[in-house]
Amino acid sequence: MSIPETAINARPQPSVLTRHDFPAGFRFGVATSSYQIEGAAHEDGRGPSIWDTFCREPGRISDGSSGDIACDHYHRWPEDLDLIRSLGVDAYRFSVAWPRIQPTGSGAVNAAGLDFYERLVDGMLERGLSPYATLYHWDLPQALQDAGGWDNRETAHRFAEYARIFAERLGDRVRSYATLNEPWCSSILSYQIGEHAPGLRDRRAALSAAHHLLLGHGEAVLALRSVVQQAEVGIVLNLNPAYPATTSPADAAAARSFDGEFNRWFLEPLLVGEYPRDTWEAYGQDVPDVHPGDLQTIRQPLDFMGVNYYSRGLISASGPARAEQSEFTAMDWEVYPQGLTDLLVRLKTDYLVPPIYITENGAAYHDVLEGDDVHDTARVRYFETHLNAVRAAADQGVDVRGYFAWSLMDNFEWAHGYSKRFGLVYVDYGDQRRILKDSAKWYRSLASSEARDD
Ligand code: IFM
Question: Which residues are noted in the entry as substrate-binding (predicted)?
């Protein structure tokens, strides 16, 4: 869809949404992840991760880059926390790099790694920001990959051990823990589709990885709760609601099958304690080796469910379809805010779902830096329409507690390198300057609006 010239030239407008449009106590935040922003890949005892390895393999990353330097957040974190504070938000969702804490994924702990996250968390608390920690956002220690990665059941146990180590040090200051970010990506996208590290194309290995990720989640929940009595523990899923492209029964069946593989394969073990039967049968010989007791371990009571929403799946019997009349982002993802309302209402209707946080939502666009400005009108509209979608779900009784914009700043977008910009804040990778886009100013006007007092 083309955007009118007048909209392109418009100057930043404050948000018409305010905190009063959301439930009492609703939290606004921004999100990032370790490998995407930290850089300092070889400093202070950090061990190599699967992404360090993957980035060095020719052809894996579209611009040939890596997270070696990224946004240099490892060194610039005080300014970055000041920046977050200046946006008026309540909370910061960050992730912890496992190879900084345990360089080989097991055994010896690297004190300098824990020290870094302690400084970071203390810095948040000093600025009045609540830390929302994610323990695994894809940077698996390479040594564990060498032993089979998530295809190896042992990795689940190692993950729980690492979660315990982190909580023993930071548990007096970090209350909110998400175990995993988007296990669909770290299993299917990484072991079956081959687009993410370790870049395999093996469905059996992918389903085994997904099972061990979920098992690691369950074991980590137990470990976290045993260390931090007040812990609020959850998991973050990327959910992609599926819509049939037409009213034909064949498209409806295809959409149901997509939903099984993408959404229910993760939701149901976590919330029901079973894999979805239709999808299990469709996977045939490739299903994972589930040991007695695994599903009980996986189905831990959760304090929250993190939902990452970007777009919907429009599905036909012959594969993904495209709604040509729609607007698409620079990722070629359809802008479809109604999907977020539908998804949230469905989670409430179909499952005994815990309170929900939107842990990621945002869009990449082709931003243009003009002096000290980026007039990212389309991104402002994306945030506004999706926040309205969250509000609509809350009005329908969904217990949604907060919203984290993805992302605080432009960063390393995995296989796309630095070619896709998701930030509220523009990063000039030449000199690491941070420049507020119009969307950051818009979000600030919302987050800085007067809080509800009921
Ligand atoms: O950048 C990623 C993030 O790491 C996980 N969720 C989706 C984002 C955009 O692709």
Answer: 36, 137, 181, 310, 406, 413-414
d(C-alpha 243, C-alpha 246), whole Å:
9
Higher pLDDT among residues 332 and 454, named by residue? 332
Which residue in the list 38, 182, 232, 261 is annotated as catalytic?
182
In a domain, 404, yes or no: yes
Domain count, the chain: 1
Contact criterion met (CB below 8 Å) for 426 and 369: yes
* Any atom of ligand 1 within 6 Å of the Cβ of 308: yes
The per-residue pLDDT for range 101-133, each reduced to its tens digit, is 999 999 999 999 999 999 999 999 999 999 999
Residue 7 has pLDDT above 60, yes or no: no
Rounded to the nearest whole angstrom, what is the distance from the C-alpha of residue 439 to the centroid of ligand 1? 18
Residue 360 annotated as catalytic: yes
CA distance 413 to 435: 18
CA-to-CA distance for 226 and 233, rounded, in angstroms? Answer: 12
On whether residue 202 sits in a domain, the answer given is yes
Q: What is the rounded average pLDDT of the residues 210-215?
A: 99
Quick check: 90 and 28 in contact, CB under 8 A? yes
* CA neighbor of 53 nearest in space, from 204, 205, 190: 190
Mutating to test ligand 1, I would choose from 30, 33, 382 the residue with most ligand atoms within 8 A of its C-beta, which is 33
Residue 370 lies in a domain: yes
| Cβ atoms 453, 391 nearer than 8 A | no
The pTM of this model reads: 0.97
Told to judge if 168 belongs to the known catalytic residues of this protein, a careful annotator would answer no
Query: What is the C-alpha separation between 436 and 371, in angstroms, rounded?
Result: 12
Is residue 400 within 8 Å of residue 356, measured between CB atoms? Answer: yes
77 is in an annotated binding site: no
Nearest CA to ligand 1 atom 2: 413
Note the pLDDT tens digit of each residue in 54-89.
999 999 999 999 999 999 999 999 999 999 999 999
Contacts of 332 (CB under 8 A, 6+ apart): none
What CATH number does the domain containing 73 carry? Answer: 3.20.20.80
Would you report the helix, strand and coil content of the chain in percent, each value rounded to 5?
45, 15, 40
Helix (H/G/I), strand (E/B), else coil: 427 = strand
Q: If we measure between CA atoms, which residue out of 439, 449, 306 comes closest to residue 385? A: 439
Q: What is the extent of the structural domain holding 100? A: 19-447
Mean pLDDT taken over the chain: 97
Distance, C-alpha 28 to centroid of its chain: 15
Whether residue 452 is contained in a domain is answered as no
Phi, psi of 318 (to 5 degrees): -95, 10
